[in-house]
Amino acid sequence: MSKRDYYEVLGVAKGADDKDIKKAYKRLAMKFHPDRTQGDKGMEEKFKEVQEAYEVLSDEQKRAAYDRFGHAGVDPNRGGGGFGGGAGGGDFGDIFGDVFGDIFGGGGRRGQSRAQRGSDLRYNLELNLEEAVKGKSVDIKVPTYVNCDSCDGSGAKKGTSAKSCPTCHGAGQVTMRQGFFAVQQTCPTCNGRGKIIPEPCSKCHGEGRVEKTKTLSVKIPAGVDTGDRIRLTGEGEAGMHGAPAGDLYVQVNVRAHPIFQRDGNNLYCDVPLSFTTAALGGEIAVPTLDGRIKLKIPAETQTDKMFRLRGKGVQSVRGGGVGDLVCKVVIETPVNLSDKQKELLRQLDESMAGESEAKHRPKSKGFFDGVKKFFDDLTG
């Protein structure tokens, strides 16, 4: 199956600059990323196609080779390298950008090629609503690769060092001629590193990294919500042979709460209300995340009436004002009545029987008028 033109894949003109190419890539990668498409194989293939196109067009040398020779100039089967890496395929950070900015550490992390950089990792962290709203510090255990302490990540036996590759002389690439074409490909001797290790480290077997479960303390900012990610720069897998480490993304999931539902900065809850309090008015205690407070109920309150308690919601992690707590009252029908209580309700009902129904039941008149009109229209 022939490949589509890379410029067509990203939807940009052949003369597009780097900024336009990156913008197009981010938009399409967000659209087709496996984390968003829930296992849709078609979307996953499109994501890989977009990723491959960007890998070529964002690299000055690869783009020049592609513009001159087409797909033959960058075919990974003839030396173009792969397009993988990162959490769930691709570089998690490049595609989405971390929600909170790089507030947990360091800057420049791409001193070496993308193919050598350690993989990004994802850790799923569950919090209850109170923890998410107020923030906390948590310790997490992450199985990963870390730099080998025996060789300091070099991969070479202690007391020795890597040597320049005799095949590519340190370039990492060799030139292959195929007819009229001269194509650069990854050096088969050093796999693109430009160096070889004559005496590999016995502990890491020349990789420069070993498996380890490390414990990290993560500060969860107040106001996080399900779907938010916290990036810990350099806490992903260590790169091979001393290459930079990837990043760790802590993915937040907030468990359902038995009382409150969160929507943005606001909290919502249903408050049961007795029949008599709804009719006569009164005062009830309602819960908030800071404790109980009193809420005045006016007389003749109907079910589903909303009461807004300002400032009793959530302070968003992204700043702005504190949200509100919205209480919806649900009037409860009395149950388990005694004979005397039932008789009192019958007397109440009889006392209202001679009066206009709309006087005591404001919703009923509109409802039954609508029902009458509906059947009149059907039979008319």
TrEMBL record:
HAMAP family xref list: DnaJ
Extent of the CXXCXGXG motif repeats: 148-155, 165-172, 187-194, 201-208
Subunit structure: Homodimer.
Positions annotated to bind Zn(2+) 2: C165, C168, C187, C190
Keyword Nucleotidyltransferase annotated: no
UniProt-recorded name of the protein: Chaperone protein DnaJ
PROSITE patterns per record: DNAJ_1, DNAJ_2, ZF_CR
Residues binding Zn(2+) 1: C148, C151, C201, C204
Stated family: Belongs to the DnaJ family.
Protein purpose: Participates actively in the response to hyperosmotic and heat shock by preventing the aggregation of stress-denatured proteins and by disaggregating proteins, also in an autonomous, DnaK-independent fashion. Unfolded proteins bind initially to DnaJ; upon interaction with the DnaJ-bound protein, DnaK hydrolyzes its bound ATP, resulting in the formation of a stable complex. GrpE releases ADP from DnaK; ATP binding to DnaK triggers the release of the substrate protein, thus completing the reaction cycle.
Cellular localization per UniProt: Cytoplasm
Domain spans labelled J: 5-70
Gene: dnaJ
Keywords, alphabetical: Chaperone, Cytoplasm, DNA replication, Metal-binding, Oxidoreductase, Repeat, Stress response, Zinc, Zinc-finger
Zn finger spans (CR-type): 135-213
Comment on protein domains: The J domain is necessary and sufficient to stimulate DnaK ATPase activity. Zinc center 1 plays an important role in the autonomous, DnaK-independent chaperone activity of DnaJ. Zinc center 2 is essential for interaction with DnaK and for DnaJ activity.
Names of required cofactors: Zn(2+)
Residues covered by the CR-type domain: 135-213
InterPro entries in the record: DnaJ (IPR012724), DnaJ_C (IPR002939), DnaJ_domain (IPR001623), DnaJ_domain_CS (IPR018253), HSP_DnaJ_Cys-rich_dom (IPR001305)
Taxon lineage: Bacteria, Pseudomonadati, Pseudomonadota, Gammaproteobacteria, Chromatiales
GO-annotated molecular function: oxidoreductase activity
PANTHER family reported for this sequence: CHAPERONE PROTEIN DNAJ, DNAJ HOMOLOG 1, MITOCHONDRIAL-RELATED
Pfam families: DnaJ (PF00226), DnaJ_C (PF01556), DnaJ_CXXCXGXG (PF00684)
Cofactor-binding details, from the entry: Binds 2 Zn(2+) ions per monomer.
